Amino acid sequence: MDDIRFAVLGTGGIGRRTLEVSQHKDGLTAVAACDRNGVAIDHSGLDVDELLEATEGNIASGPEDASGTTPATPTDDYASDGGAAAVEGGGGGVKQHGEQAGIVASSQGEPTDTPIDDIIAESDAIDAVLLALPNLEHDFIPRVAERFAEADYEGVMIDVLKRSRVIGMLDDREDLLKESGITFVCGAGATPGFLTGAAALAAQSFVEVEEVEIWWGVGLKSGYEDNRGTVREDIAHLDGYDIATARGMSEEEIEALIDEHDGVLEFHDMEHADDVLLERAGICDAEDVHVGGVLDVRSDEKPTTTTVSVTGTTFDGETGTNTFELDDVTSMEANVNGPALGYLKAGVRNNRAGHYGVFGPADLMPGF
Ligand SMILES: NC(=O)c1ccc[n+]([C@@H]2O[C@H](COP(=O)([O-])OP(=O)(O)OC[C@H]3O[C@@H](n4cnc5c(N)ncnc54)[C@H](O)[C@@H]3O)[C@@H](O)[C@H]2O)c1
Question: Which residues carry this modification: Allysine (predicted)?
Fold first, then answer.
């Protein structure tokens, strides 16, 4: 495949790692990146090492603008991922350093109030856009897709979102995306993403799938500071919490909750889009997919092994369970970003073949 010029929207915990992992893959050139305060664009290829060094421990992950205040009226380029506004003195939590937060701390970064529009303006020379943006406002990513389509972008867009309800919002915009020539790959991180694809593969032994069980383990000690956005989103899945309460929590409240659980949070029946993505690929009913897992923010070791088990019936009447297991040494970052870039490449292959619209990870695997 020819070289793929790609952009990353959002250089938080996930976006930074996407850039890093891309350096270990053939045929991928990062040409643009943005966060809420800044943008870096170089069509001959960004200096990824410099960008990563400048943003190390310095992610613009809070909901504030560059001045450290939450805009009174949210603009198109504003999405609140909650909480950090409650941090004393503003500044978006521990990782943000005032006006130098995030990409603007890089020599390649420029401050801007319209980071996403700045990338859209350059999108003619971009083959693929990976959205590593916050997802607590569920229509944010679909709205960003719409903006690229309205600007007649032709290329791939890919997200690593988690929540089931976002898929329908993208499907609602499918005609617009198709008209523009966009191949949108949704839910293409670890779960949903890697593990959804694994389930689609594991299902191939069967003619009927009864149940898909996804059970994940993540140890995040060294990556905790870089993944606070993701941890906050996960908290919304705990009993007694929802998206609104998770968004409204201060960093201190999150710390207190984590202390209460000795750093280990266990989740059951999570609203992860693996369910709707497997249903839309015709593999099983969404209600037969169960996602849960254990997150340990105080240890790098996984608290449990990540597995995908698919139970079904073969053509000759046997009932069995195929299980796909990740090695405990593979980190969350490896299992989100490797697959995201792999699905990005699959998206580009499809886009260049003229296949436009919304695709889930299971749609890019053998059919069922
Ligand atoms: N599918 C999976 O397995 C999986 C795993 C982990 C995380 N995720 C998802 O990845 C996404 C990112 O998570 P994270 O931990 O990197 O979050 P984060 O908070 O660390 O980073 C978010 C980034 O987006 C930027 N941003 C926010 N609003 C913006 C705007 N309006 N314009 C431009 N940039 C903006 C921020 O500045 C920051 O750089 C989340 O949606 C999360 O659910 C998915």
Answer: 162
Q: Is the Cβ atom of 338 under 6 angstroms away from ligand 1? A: no
At the second CATH level, the architecture of 4-189+334-364 is: 3-Layer(aba) Sandwich (3.40)
Q: Which residues are catalytic?
A: 162, 233, 237
Q: How confident is the model at residue 226 (pLDDT cuts 50, 70, 90)?
A: confident
Rounded to the nearest angstrom, the gap between the alpha carbon of residue 267 and the centroid of all alpha carbons in its chain is 19
The atom number, within ligand 1, closest to the CA of 103 reads 39
Q: Are 54 and 168 in contact (CB under 8 A)?
A: no
Closest CA to 146 of 124, 104, 125, 116: 116
Domain map (residue ranges) of the chain: 4-189+334-364, 194-329
Q: What percent of the chain has pLDDT over 70?
A: 89
Closest Cα to atom 42 of ligand 1? 230
Q: Write down the ipTM of this complex.
A: 0.97
The best mutation among 8, 9, 11, 14 to test binding of ligand 1, ranked by most ligand atoms within 8 Å of the C-beta, falls on 14
